[in-house]
Specification:
The protein is α/β, with parallel strands linked by helices. It has two domains: 179 residues, 3-Layer(aba) Sandwich (D-Maltodextrin-Binding Protein, domain 2); 189 residues, D-Maltodextrin-Binding Protein, domain 2, CATH 3.40.190.10. Helix content is 52%, strand content 12%. The chain has a five-stranded mixed β-sheet with strand order 2-1-3-12-6, with helices on both faces. Helix 10 packs across helix 13 and helix 20 packs antiparallel against helix 21. It is globular, with a radius of gyration of 21 Å.
Length: 409
């Protein structure tokens, strides 16, 4: 059966099953200005079908939201849909039979042909069945720099982490905090992961994160990363914020020189009216190792005992991956669409850099795809302890880090 015939058949089934308007509660943790602007694109598209998007935003990020979502599901009061990251976060819910099998939707919509890179669909697949709808490619591998801050300091905008570290004294002399970092543990662990790729290299990162090689984690390549992470801790002194978007705001307001953060930071620059290449500079791989990690967001749909809701869930899953919704959402979010067949000729300079890396195949898996949630939590706790304990040395945290990797699953 040709793809177009499959699409028409599936569309007819969905339309017949959801003839009346359906309200779907959708839970997510997109609450910053840029994130709210992006998720509104999903809501507008769903409402335009005659159904109703009931927004279930949870402030505080994924670490706060995920336990609440899981509690709702196992407690028998599930939302109709919820956002998780690509990877291993939903394994236990799938094993328990609590999440809707979307294989029929994926086959009818041709997801195997359109999802790029294919590992994002693989991350939704368990025992050959598909349980989530991937909606974007998000990469942690970025540093964002304030052009205005460097103009105030009277020096050129750095083009690499090495150059950035060398300019820190000039920024401080101008009253500017060199590095913006929020207080949540996932931010410190995420920044460390980016620095690991940039300073130890992709082979070392894969050995530690994918292959769980504790010897590499304890070795010389990673020692360089921990030394740099210790230096970064000092560069962030003076800026006391909690949320990631507050740290991004410091870069936007030219009170901080740079931030290591995923490409979702672009949504904040967009809301503030900042222009890539003019107001801010973006460096994939910290300007050291140009690579894109293929993380991102996906929507899962809990199993419910209501055929009308189930049909609407599948309709929403298909809608999230439709070309116009992919373009509108990802343009607002700062992420890349998971479809390779949409028109992105109007994207900004930073998004184009990401598209070029994707096209070139300069890709790494996201940490959430290769490390279990338990391991990620342990690393979050360790690295935030180091970040907030000046007396803890790089050698001490490296030893503890290697121990966690040795026991990782």
């Amino acid at each position: 059966m040709k793809l177009t015939t499959k699409l028409m058949a599936f569309s007819a089934i969905v339309s017949a099953s959801s003839a009346s308007a359906v309200e779907l509660e959708v839970m997510h943790w997109w609450t910053s200005g840029g994130e709210a602007a992006a998720v509104s694109k999903f809501a507008e598209a769903w409402d335009a079908t005659g159904n109703t998007w009931v927004d279930g935003a949870i402030a505080g990020g994924g670490d706060t939201a995920r336990p609440i979502m899981v509690s709702r599901i196992i407690g028998g009061d599930p939302p109709a849909a919820f956002q998780f990251n690509h990877g291993r976060q939903a394994e236990e819910l799938i094993e328990a039979g609590l999440l809707l099998d979307l294989t029929d939707v994926a086959e009818a919509e041709g997801w195997a042909e359109i999802v790029n890179p294919s590992n994002l669909l693989d991350a939704c697949t368990v025992d050959g069945r598909i349980y989530c709808a991937p909606v974007n490619i998000h990469s942690w591998q970025w540093m964002w720099l304030s052009n205005g801050a460097y103009e105030k300091a009277g020096i050129p905008v750095p083009q690499s982490w090495t150059e950035f570290a060398a300019t820190a004294g000039d920024l401080e002399a101008a009253g500017i905090t060199p590095l913006a970092m929020g207080g949540q543990s996932w931010q410190q662990n995420g920044a460390f992961g980016v620095m690991s790729v940039a300073l130890a290299g992709t082979d070392a990162w894969l050995a530690v994160n994918r292959d769980k090689d504790a010897e590499v984690a304890a070795g010389a390549d990673y020692a360089r990363v921990f030394e740099a992470f210790g230096a970064a801790r000092e560069l962030a002194v003076g800026l006391n914020v909690q949320d990631w978007n507050q740290a991004t705001a410091a870069v936007i307001n030219d009170t901080a020189g740079a931030q290591i953060m995923g490409d979702w930071a672009q949504g904040e620059f967009a809301v503030a009216g900042e222009v890539a290449g003019e107001d801010y500079t973006c460096l994939p791989g910290l300007g050291e190792v140009a690579v894109l990690s293929t993380g991102g967001d996906a929507f899962y749909f809990p199993v419910v005992d209501d055929e009308e809701i189930t049909a609407a869930q599948k309709e929403l899953a298909a809608l999230l991956l439709s070309p116009p919704v992919q373009v509108s959402f990802n343009s607002a979010k700062g992420s890349l669409p998971i479809r390779g067949d949409v028109d992105l000729t109007t994207v900004n300079d930073c998004t184009q850099k990401g598209l070029d890396l994707l096209a070139a195949g300069n890709l790494l898996p996201d940490g959430a795809a290769v490390l279990s949630p338990d391991t990620v939590t342990q690393l979050n706790d360790l690295l935030t302890e180091f970040w907030n304990t000046p007396s803890m040395t790089p050698a001490e945290v490296q030893s503890a880090y290697a121990d966690i990797i040795a026991d990782a699953d």
